[in-house]
Amino acid sequence: MVDLSINCGGIKSPNPFWLASAPPTNSAYQNCKAFELGWGGVVWKTLSHPIMNVASRLGGFDYSGQKLAGLNNIELTTDRSLEINLKEIKETKKLWPDRAIIVSLMVESKRETWHDFVKKAIDTGADGLELNYGCPHGMSERGMGAAVGQVPEYCQMITEWVTEVSTIPVLVKLTPNVTNIQIPARAAQTAKAQGVSLINTINSIVGIDLDTLRIMPNITGKGGHGGFAGPAVKPIALHMVSQVATDPEFHLAISGIGGISTWKDTLEFILLGASSVQVCTAVMHHGFRIVQDMTDGLTNWMISKGYNNLDQLRGKSLTGIDSFGNLNLLYKAVARIDQSKCIHCNLCYIACEDGAHQCIELTPEDGHNKTVIREVDCVGCNLCSIVCPVPECISMVRMDDGSQEKTWNDLVQDFKEESRELTWENLAEFQKKNGIVIH
Amino acid sequence: MKNIVSKLTLEQYEKNFQELHPPLSYGSAKAESSRCLYCYDSPCMKACPTHIDISEFIKKISTDNLLGSAKTILKSNWVALTCAKACPVAVLCEGACVLNEKGDKPIEIGRLQRYVIDNYFSLGMPALFSKKPSNGKKVAIIGSGPSGLSCGAELALLGYNVTIFEQSETPGGLNTWGIAPYKMRKQDALNEVELVKNFGVNIKTGVGVGTDIPFNELYKNFDAVFLGIGLGESHALSVNGEELPGVISALDFIEQVKTEDWSSVPVGKRVAIIGAGNTSIDAATEAKRLGAEEVIVIYRRSSQDMSAYNFEFNLAKKDGIIFHFLTAPEKIVGKKFVEGIECIRMEPGKPDSKGKRSVLPVPGTEFIIPVDMVIKAIGQEAQNDFISTIPDVKFVGRKIQINSDTYQTGNPKVFAGGDCINGGKEVVNAAYDGKMAAYGIDKFLGK
Questions:
Q1: Which of A177, A322, A384, B24 could form a disulfide with A326, with the two C-beta atoms 3.0–4.6 Å apart?
Q2: d(Cα A309, Cα A313) in Å, to the nearest integer?
């Protein structure tokens, strides 16, 4: 029996799938519908001060025929009154006691105002708070959102205002638009938050209309940067989650956000240390129903791999993350093409020839081109296997026997001990000794 | 002819002759182009007889560079719309698409090419090519079919003064008159003629060389002559009753259909087509679409031997065409008009050195199929009578002999391409021949 339930900094939900604070969590109608379809939690669309949105808030980033590889938005916090939201949160929590409802807050930088919002939010019966320090547009111009998240001192100070009155868990939502995300995460920890949510959206201009020469979205001739989300940001988000999760000074729970569309994406965030995940763009594209495959797919994968609960998986891939200096320079891999699977598109050839190390031979045979790796020259970069459209046609084969290991850090240490300088000549000697040919 | 089918409504005709492969929408063209792998040195390009850089033109669709895409196509093939619609893509470019090997559906190259050219024509054919300055030399082209148009376009851009002589009042050759309307309408071919005319090629229609004006006049007044004359009359069946009303050649029948004045084309209720090539399939399916109740293809060899492509055979079967293989016509029966066709069963004999089996009649198996119309589709004669009036131009069988690099005939001033040199192939082969002959002419006259 597989148990998908999670506890993210004290916020419990029957599965790790939460909806991120965004247009899909704007109303009781939407959140109740999401719960009916199986979402484990929702982060209610951010409560804030009076705002007004503009029409034309979203811009899609399409790639090679694929719609919404990314989504850019300039929508602000909720544009419905505080009273209506509080009333709806209370009603929704009553209807769905087993699900997590987290109230997102973004408030002007005044201690009393924060206290007021926090108390009102707790009175709804919500399970947790999420402090929105990430919104990169609009609100930051008014001293909120990313304007707070980008300054660790503010982040700490305001979080303290919240934690000093909150009786429920507090998550701090981090902006990725910083140099080192570990710093604001530590600030949240210092301020006694229970967890962090990341990443919020990335500063973006989604594109330019080549007829009007205006950026998109275009609001009567004007536009501004927005926040970028969706599948395209996932690798950035994974990296930032791992940065926080591998920080030895950081010990809080993580709610992972950034381009999550499927159960596979979910697993990747969990394997890098997330307790829950938050989804937005995928739901804006295809609706709440996607949670059914996410739940089903995750369960089936866990059964097939013999896992019973998500605690067994959380952070499991973090042990393999290390600095470049600790990677084995004597690991040797070369590409090998399975000729029986090759469809003769020659994409590996042109990629290697123009974009890598010129080690694929193209020779005419039986009316088509045969592609053969010149293994002595192959540096094992993976490019050909990445561009090959046929599954398992090009594989990377390990050539060293595994008996030798030497990292860059080892090498530097060796040189130091031998009192030799790190010169091209000395490096070449090491390479020659180990059969490494540089072209 | 007795038992002529009654007229259909205009809507019914339009429905029957609607396009087999409708145009792609903007969205579907983009999606299909994005599916292309953009192969390097792509097999589809090699499989195209005109070597259109297919992955390049498809890439340009995906980036909304449709004019660039049109230029990529046209620089290799001046009758690219006809080719897009009439080429047997399954055995050419699409058959070579690497996605087949991957187990996926090949890219719809024909429909994408059509998308690009349709767009180019709808924009009014904006100039994409620049002409070299006039070199003062004159070339005459006989025939405005695909080889003549290709040769003319290429030469005009190289700076030649080109005149095409076309015996029909309407130019375009078989592109205009020989392609089934559910594949392509006449106007498409005429648009391609316009494209070539835009390069300054002069097309004199209604002028038959050898009938209206002697060949010698061209030979004297032009620096070189290109023969894009195609083939001639349909082969005769050489059976009794062939002269009866109700017997027609496939090409004449298809040409009548191509007037697109469908109600004026007389069709019998029961129609027999003799022969099983691609032209017979066209004639058979067109007869059916005009309202014939029963259409029978009669072929003296077996289904393995027929020259019709598999996809054409399948189309005919879908239309309910009946095939009588190993059946040979003996005579056409009827007093004043066709009433039936007497056939005899054939049996395969021993295979010859090329593996092709001869067929022999089985005595005593004669039988009569009652039909009202007989369409002859067993190939065309070469225009040997005309060709033999040109000094030093030699032909073997139905093919004018040329130098395969220069397309020059035995007469150095005379070049040839298309069906008259290959005995009858695809439009795309003719397009390539015309282009190559233009280079041959340029090499000859540029000396």
A1: A322
A2: 8
